[in-house]
Every structure is written in C-alpha cells, then in structure tokens.
C-alpha cells in the first residue's frame, strides 16, 4: 500500500542555485579570456624557425608559450595564416560577454559559425600582399586560404588581378560581418 510521502526539500534554495550558476558562468568566461590571451600570445610570437610539431630539432624555442605554444601555433599559422587570429578573438569576445552576462542566450547559435569565420578570414588574408617580414612560401591566408583563393580566381571572369581584387573586397566585407555575428553583436 502506498502512503503519501512529504516531498523532500531541495538541496539548494533558488537564490543559492542562481548565485552558483552566475558565478560559474563568470568563471567560465574568465577561463575563455585566459585561453584567448594564451592563444594570442602563442600566435603573436610564432616563429617559423621554432622546433615544433612539423619541424624537428633541438634549437631553442622563441615562442612566448614555450614548446607547447610553438607546437600549437605552427599548424594553425601554416593552415590558416592570419586567419588563426579568429580563435583568440572569438574566445576573448565570448569570455567578456560571459563575465558581463551579456547575450549568453545566443552564444551557441553564434559560436557554431566560428569555423566558417576562420575560413573566410583565411581566404581574405590570402588576398593581401605580404610584407618583407613574411618568410613563408604560402600567403598570409595560409595553405587553406591559398588553395581556396586559387580555385575562386579561376571561376571569376576577367584577369587574375581583377579577380583577386574583387574577391578581396567581397571576403573583406564577409569577414567583418561574420566576425561581428560570431562575436555576438546584434
């Protein structure tokens, strides 16, 4: 025979639960900011001469984040070029938003487009002319940006110079708009 039992009180009251959820979001936001700064320092201090995953040797590592930073930055820069700067940008932007409790309801719907933002940014960077400090055989868009840009230039009618200039404008606008979207700007 079943007897009605008194319901148990919740372990935490509503106020305590809301407080813990709010502080938890702030801690995750701070972790995202720290990760974004780590990524920015890693990419910013990248050197093609560092011994990393794709380069062997016992030479000293010039990356500010040590051998780990060099190992992570090398494939990022080789694949995406300057498009790899999208990672710290998105991480810091959403970290600040989480700390400030601003726009968290749209976070996952926006962050899921971050890989597309990185790809578009890499293609845009591939249209830019590198300066003398760029020591790589690929452009500033990395190998991915070079590959896609080459395919797109073949599709655009007219000369290659006109195609690159046209694609530079198109992908510049797309990069800006998609960057704002991914970072949560309304």
Give the averaged pLDDT, no decimals. 89
Termini, distance in Å? 58 Å
Segments where pLDDT lies below 50 for 5+ residues? none
Could you give the count of β-strands? 0
Helix content: 55-70%
Order of helices and strands: HHHHHHH
Q: How much strand content do the residues show?
A: under 5%
Major sheet characteristics: none
Report the total helices.
Answer: 7
What is the overall shape? extended
Structural class: mainly alpha
Tell me the quaternary state: single chain
What gyration radius follows from the Cα positions, in whole Å?
Answer: 22 Å
Describe this structure as you would to a colleague:
The protein has helices at residues 14-44, 66-80, 86-100, 107-111, 114-126, 142-155, 160-182. α1 (14-44) crosses α2 (66-80). The mean pLDDT is 89. The chain contains seven helices and no strands. Helices cover 62% and strands 0% of the residues. With 186 residues, the protein is mainly α. The longest helix has 31 residues, at 14-44.
